[in-house]
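Record type: ASSEMBLY
Status: queued
Input:
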Amino acid sequence: MASERVSERGLAVLHAIVRDYVSSNEPVGSKAIVDRHRFGVSAATIRNDMALLEDEELIAAPHTSSGRVPTDKGYRLYVDTLSRIRPLTSGQRSAIERFLGESHDLDDMLARTVRLLSQLTNQVAVVQYPSLRRTKVRHIDLVALGEDRVLCVLILGTGVVEQQLATLPAAQVTEAWVNGLRDRIAGALVGLDLEEAEAEAQLLTGTIDDWVQPDEADLVRLVLGVVLAQLQANRSDRITIAGRANLSRPGDFEGSLPQVLEAIEEQVTLLRLFGELVSGDREVAASIGRENEPYGLAGASVIASSYEHEGDSRSNLGVLGPMRMDYAGNIATVRAVASYLSKMLGEA
Amino acid sequence: MASERVSERGLAVLHAIVRDYVSSNEPVGSKAIVDRHRFGVSAATIRNDMALLEDEELIAAPHTSSGRVPTDKGYRLYVDTLSRIRPLTSGQRSAIERFLGESHDLDDMLARTVRLLSQLTNQVAVVQYPSLRRTKVRHIDLVALGEDRVLCVLILGTGVVEQQLATLPAAQVTEAWVNGLRDRIAGALVGLDLEEAEAEAQLLTGTIDDWVQPDEADLVRLVLGVVLAQLQANRSDRITIAGRANLSRPGDFEGSLPQVLEAIEEQVTLLRLFGELVSGDREVAASIGRENEPYGLAGASVIASSYEHEGDSRSNLGVLGPMRMDYAGNIATVRAVASYLSKMLGEA
DNA sequence: ACTGGCACTCGAAACATGAGAGTGCCAGGG
DNA sequence: CCCTGGCACTCTCATGTTTCGAGTGCCAGT
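Status: finished
Output:
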């Protein structure tokens, strides 16, 4: 553990360095620390502590004899030893309520959330749409709309209704035929969750020749294709992002900006990162610097939490920014926004 | 007109300057021009022409005695005097076909289009979703699904079907009642386009007390609310963007990057800009530098065109990049992608 | 109308210099 | 044992100086 090797005061010095560096973006020296923070000791003492911190690779000097800068490991220890989550200011609380309180439409709500989060933190905000992966298929219906059209209706456990019109090439559609097909498909898929249903539908499509007349196979395949498309569209996780302009704040990502923008555009990666991050047992988790390397975000830090939406499942949200960010504030903000969002969605 | 004041060769020199500057990102001097392009004259002659171009504010010198750089006005004249649209290479053509040919789902298609466009041009690509603003309401249906549920179905002129389940607080739903309400609402809205229908639905909601029993007002309001939400969701214009990482290419937006990112995030602005740009009679239009100032994109250039989707209406697409971009190539690419997309959507 | 020549300007790069901030370390004191 | 003041040392940054070369403008000559 850290406490084995770093003294009480050493930790305090680390905290001071992180705080000063975050606000000034300049390496911080021993003198600056004793000036700005009321340690009861002299600069020389701080220097000794700093030498120790440097041995532990918690801080580093950009060049011999300039101030120190926290390393990934330093930020990590800093975050892990943040004692309490600083409460939000009343202004921030009311901003959240005002901003999120005005809308009942889910899409609008999430759009507001992501903008709010990016404004409160001055970072890139990411909000995942509620995942329907575990939602069950409640109802499947096929309705003949004429001689060559079939309306495919899909109702999910959450009450979401999707449908799509399939136009069949030949005029072979009879009500009885459609009903038979409907019973067949519904019998196979209703009650499964979306992931299972998709697999099952794939299977049905593959073995199509075993259970329909050969001359109907094409039609059935088409209809199944529509159902499959609906399942896939609902299964897929989507995210919404705001505040990218914050990335170009000078002094943050300088050279690595292209990579970061690239990584953000690759939404699949972000989804994985957030998923991984939130899977722990913490209410809000942070991932710092090189810990994000597998996701192409080596220089960045991510703070993530999750919100609950109707039903039991959770989706993720959070912010992404430079390593040099206000962890204490952002953790508090992310946590607060996540909990407000859960509350709002619970009420609806 | 330009030809009044700028000689034939002067124009050729301008073209040479633009081409060289675009590819090198360095001010281009008279010597470089005679070296790289086979003018039959000496550098001194070119210098005289350049002095003229400078008088016309078509080019400018970053500092006394260095090469020249095209101005907004210079780029504009260059684009306007691009004689023919350079055809795409066969590689590009096949890339387009391969990329766009694989999908029949509209969302997927547009997602592919925007990625393709950004990769072919190395710029930020923007594609607007088909606008349903002018689409007519073809059919409205309310179906009682039990004692407290009503399914609201909305079918648009394009064949898009939307529906949503409304759960009513009290168990007052009878089939007859729902049918009456349906006739009422459908009678008022069917045949209008989405914009009109939305206004009309607002009106209906406002005067609700005049045409239903007081004790039913809440139910009716709820149902109308669902219809209204559907109308609004379909009316709104959405865009999808790809290739933001291209903006951070060094030497392009340097300092103004935050503003550009900001402007891109503000999708409403982009929609206006694209709309404005395409409204002319040209197949593909360009907007250069300060012409974009009202949209917060002073340093950028936009190349826009539009594609046709089933029905008669058109939506926009294009690319956005630094003033110093390959106009000839990008115009050709945007045009080709737009026409392919129209073709694909026409077939479906 | 074009060309070659020439003086001039200005930025970029290379190098030197001094100031300042910050460190490491040591000997001495509570 | 921990802390302190002091001191020599190192490295960056800002500044100044010089040189070099690319490019221009202009003019006299074809």
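Annotation: The first helix of chain B runs from residue 2 to 5.
Annotation: The mean pLDDT of chain B is 86.
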